[in-house]
Design a protein that fits this description.
This protein has about 130 residues and is an all-alpha fold. About 80% of the residues lie in helices and about 0% in strands. α1 runs antiparallel to α2.
């Protein structure tokens, strides 16, 4: 009997602990972006969530096998849209990365010059006391 209560409590808590806060964030984003009422978004996503959870692991596998490629495609299209929207900044960004890399290398070389003895000048490094 106790195991049935635990199982029922687990199913009930699975709706409120992980998924409903995410549904709330999605609903707020949909309202801000597309002016869709949060109640409508929340209701649709809650029904979809209930169908997935109550359908079991086979249904979860079937749904994710269809949703994940779609999510990847949307992500790639979104990333390309951002890159193309900022196309004029691509070359300057690469040049800035190259410049920062060279500056970091020059700083490293300069710091090693202080640590290593200089055989041509006969100077000792700063950490060796006279």
């Amino acid at each position: 009997m106790a195991c049935c209560i635990v199982a029922i409590a687990t199913v009930i808590s699975s709706f409120g602990t992980g998924s409903l806060p995410q549904i709330n964030n999605i609903a707020q984003g949909m309202e801000a972006t597309f002016n869709i009422q949060p109640m409508v978004t929340g209701a649709v996503l809650s029904i979809l969530l209930a169908l997935v959870i109550l359908g079991g692991i086979k249904r979860i596998a079937a749904i994710t096998s269809r949703v994940v490629p779609l999510m990847a495609a949307v992500y790639i299209i979104g990333a390309l849209a951002v890159i193309l929207y900022n196309a004029e900044n691509i070359i300057p960004s690469f040049l800035l990365c190259l410049l920062m890399h060279l500056v970091a290398r020059l700083r490293l070389v300069a710091s090693w010059g202080r640590l290593l003895p200089m055989p041509l000048t006969g100077r000792k490094p700063w950490f060796i006391l006279q």
